[in-house]
Amino acid sequence: MSEMLADWTRGVEAIAYQQCTACDARQYFRRSFCAACGTPEPETKLASGEGTVYATSLVCRAATAEIRAHVPYNILLVDTAEGFRMMAHGDNGLAIGDKVFARYEQFAGRLVPYFEKAK
Amino acid sequence: MSYVTGVGLTSYGKHEGASSLDLMSRAAALAIADAGLKRTEIDGVLCGYSTVSPHIMLATVFAEHFGIRPSYAHAVQVGGATGLAMTMLAHHLVDAGVAKHVLVVSGENRLTGQSRDASIQALAQVGHPDYEVPLGPTIPAYYGLVASRYMHEYGLTQEDLAEFAVLMRAHACVHPGAQFHEPITVADVMASKPVAMPLKLLDCCPVSDGGAAFIISREPTGSAGIRVRGCAQAHTHQHVTAAPALSELGAEISIAKAKAASGLAISDVRYAAVYDSFTITLAMLLEDLGLAQRGEAAARVRAGYFGRTGEVPLNTHGGLLSYGHCGVGGAMAHLVETYLQMTGRASIRQVHDASIALLHGDGGVLSSHVSMFLERVR
Predict the structure, then answer these.
(1) A50-117: what CATH class?
(2) Which residues 6+ apart lie within 8 Å of B60 measured at CB?
(3) Domain parsing of chain A, residue ranges
(4) What are the tens digits of pLDDT across the range B339-350?
(5) Which residues of chain B lie closer than 8 angstroms to A59, CB-CB?
(6) ipTM for the complex?
(7) Do B136 and A70 touch (CB under 8 A)?
């Protein structure tokens, strides 16, 4: 049943992850099994959107005309409160260690997660 | 045992009108001649890939084009680590008696064969198709992310990173085949256009045309004896999102295994050839490999440690950053230069002592690693 949870990669304003029913490992890239121990059918859950900035890179040179319209945009790696790491967009001024919260934006015709500083 | 017995390298930069197969052929012919072999003596072929001319059977496409009929041939794909991964495989193949002389070859008209945008877009596809690529990252952005974290944890500055670009350019200035010959300063790097912060244009390797090849043989074919003393790989992840902590990256794993395989220590190393797709790549790898203490690599550059007359000369041809980067051939130029240094044929770039060399390649986003020690035995 948890397979039905849609997230931003399918155009829905949500961040999904998987949790192993056997070893409790969390994973972000969806699979039909746990990559840590191999147990099938990990449980899919929705994340809270809370996290901490792990890394940032402000992209100033893009490869396609469609994406160039968004330059510069800040790409982040965020360590989520649920314990997995994800790539997302975020405010330009964000620094490593900042507590952040997810919202969503349109980017080159698709929905993407966008983090701003937590209030 | 296995020996490097010949090398071939074109200039890097623009080769208008040359195809990937043309560039591979030029480098292969040079390497075979350098080894003193006839083309019919090549019984193994390992080749990389070409983003300009992708093919599911590039090794046999090349063998037919070049006019040889090897008894062992296929392509290898490990991104920037492909050249050393092929060398490691060739080492094991000749050691196991599968082939006598393996031609390792790659070449690509990546600069003139497609637009820069096409190159940037093709390479960005190493990202995760669902979870990364839709966010519009580029290869510099993947490394920019790593750079921001590494600088945060170990206190490096952008000026520190710039030192590596300046060093590679200084080395390229005295190599006639290098893509860039204009000296640059730290200020030039700092003032160059932002690409994916903290990386600026001069922190990034260029896109180039070029070809490189070498021969790995069971026995030396001439008076020189340059053998593979030991090598190892490590693969910890593909995507930067799934990368382990900075202290658990693959370079530390592969160098530990290569040291064990060779019985050598970092203090034995007289010459270093280290992957340098970006300044951060070089800084991190030097520190991961133990050629500098954590956070100290830039200080060693400033002190001349990695210069031609320093304690451990590094990438004396100018590296990917300034000799150029034509894909798989890019890092193969590191081995070509190492072999020339070890055989005393590096002309005005010749270092005092290159009797033991350490080579290291990185593919993906610090995803795949190959460490290798070469030793001069005669």
Answers:
(1) mainly beta
(2) B73
(3) 2-46, 50-117
(4) 999 999 999 999
(5) 136-138, 140-141, 144, 196
(6) 0.96
(7) yes
